Amino acid sequence: MSRYFYDLHLHSCLSPCADDDMTPSNIAGMASLCGLQLIALTDHNTCGNCGALLQACRQYGIVGVPGMELTTAEEIHLVCLFPGLVQAEEFERQVREHRLPIRNKPEIFGNQLFVDVDDNVVGEEPNLLIPATTLSLEEGTALALSCGGAAFPAHIDRPSNGIIGILGDLPERPFFPTVELNDRENREEYREKYGLQDRRMLCSSDAHHLWDIRDAANSIELDDEPYSSQRVRDVLIQLLREGMA
Ligand SMILES: [Zn+2]
Ligand SMILES: [Zn+2]
């Protein structure tokens, strides 16, 4: 078993609300400087920069995880993580059919840049990525599972787009054994108030700027023997899937 300092909720320059210098390479470099060993890229409703992030993480000797922050039809943000690019891309292919075809206005919403591992802009997403998809919470969760991934509600301690802010509580179904808090200081309060004693609570930064990426504070134990970065991803996803129905 090894302890991994993680940040499993990060946005790249493909998210319109994130800075253009949130390139996969800058993210991996900053994460490594902060002492993180395990990071996930979770852009809004897309996995488009995940390939470059995995490459950048390899260069910095840390483990990258492909992911997406899905906006459900209820406007709930759901972090979906995958053991590999193949699974993430399959998920993205299906999510794309549930995105609204609204053109992005970069001067208003921000750029949506596809970037390679060397910081070259290789394309731009024409449709705005932030609106809610037409996938319900239940459908989005089931889709992530069917693609081999895991899902958990994002920043449940924030009123906007947090599952508790929107539904008032965690639903019985789908059951989420893992939830994400934005502020680890809220852990005890939420555990008590919403009866989350049996849930795993992850804390991630939801960084949209390089300076949002925090020093290593949150860790998770993973059985990574015999070590490979693929094994770390597999074990993480397996752990997060346990108890999901
Ligand atoms: Zn969010
Ligand atoms: Zn986010």
Mind explaining what this structure looks like?
The structure is a single chain. The protein has helices at residues 24-33, 50-60, 85-96, 106-109, 137-146, 163-167, 187-193, 229-241, and strands at 2-10, 38-44, 63-71, 77-81, 113-115, 121-124, 150-153, 178-181, 200-203, 219-222. With 245 residues, the chain is an alpha/beta fold. The protein has one domain: TIM Barrel (Alpha-Beta Barrel), CATH 3.20.20. Helix 1 packs parallel to helix 2 (50-60). The longest helix has 13 residues, at 229-241. The protein is globular, with a radius of gyration of 17 Å. It starts with a strand and ends with a helix. The mean pLDDT is 97. It binds zinc ion (ZN) (2 copies). Residues 69, 77, 154-155, 161, 206 line the site of one zinc ion (ZN).
What's a concise summary of this model?
By secondary structure, this protein is of the alpha/beta class.
Please render the helix and strand layout as text.
Layout: E1 2-10, H1 24-33, E2 38-44, H2 50-60, E3 63-71, E4 77-81, H3 85-96, H4 106-109, E5 113-115, E6 121-124, H5 137-146, E7 150-153, H6 163-167, E8 178-181, H7 187-193, E9 200-203, E10 219-222, H8 229-241
Helix pairs in contact: 1-2
Bound molecules: zinc ion (2 copies).
